[in-house]
Amino acid sequence: MDEEKTAWTRVDVILPMVFYCALLLCVTLWTQFSPLNLSQLGFRTGGWASAILRGGYVGLSWAGVWLWTWFVLSAPQRLHRVVPGLAAPFVLQTVVWVVGAFSEEIWRVVGITALLHDRYSPIFSVITSSLVFVVAFLPDGLERSALAWLEGVIFGVLFLWERSFLAPFAAHLAVQAVYLWGVGQFSSEQRPGKSRWTRVIRCPVCGVQLRRLQVKISEDFECPSCHKRLSTSEEYRTAMRWAAALSYMLLFVCSLALLYDQIQEQDGGIAIWLVCPIAWGAGTSLLFLYQRVFPPSLQYGETHFLTLNLDEKRPSKSDDTDDTAR
Fold first, then answer.
1. What is the pTM assigned to this prediction?
2. Exposure string (b/e) for 158-196, b if CB count within 10 Å is 16 or more?
3. At residue 3, does pLDDT exceed 70?
């Protein structure tokens, strides 16, 4: 069993790292024979905080929109997202997460900057750099390739908007974080070993560890070990409702602040219509991460089922009346 886990970790980590290192090597060789400098690639000291915040927020929103697209299509066999490092321990997951985002976004930024340097239009530069990812995802189907192209366009526009490498880099990190630690908890793949970085869910009856995929929030379910009926506690569901309501209200304000300049320039226009989708997508991503940080607490029994203590016989009302009369 340990050998199987080690082999799976090797495939899930080493293969993506080989690809990322090869991509970094290609980018390094390209920059050696081009007149591009670090300032053109968006490596500057000013405005880094704004680029990280805006990029991370757009990344959270896109991850949520991607999830809703998956739910609407309801075709996991046709539309799926491979998450590198999903079956690895937390430390290796973090390494793959950072190196993968850096290598892919540095390639995107260098490609767009080189095309702009050759006097191509910004739209052509962004679309062309995104088409490479379409080719890479063709084996996964047309739907996945189309979403990969759209994701590349969003990250490319972020780079042109902020003129900083940190904007698409933060967006890529946010997207992968949602799928690695948010959506990844619903994966049926067994992770090798236990991690002290993740909280576990246990059956309150037999104490066996449950996967997040086996736990249902809104309805009752059966423990796969002891076969007892379990449900999520009312306190957890109430806390989740309040967290969702407050998060969506706050995210709506954040989306308005993000697009405030564009709304003023266009006197509303398309920017005002993007406020709700951006807030809704970011809220969906945060709810998945919330369940990772605060996993559901379980209780024995069905939801909203009142149990009565029928073991102890209570005195009848007539007996109480007779005692009072005496």
1. 0.80
2. bbbebebbbbbbbbbbbbbbbbbbbbbbeeeeebbeeee
3. no
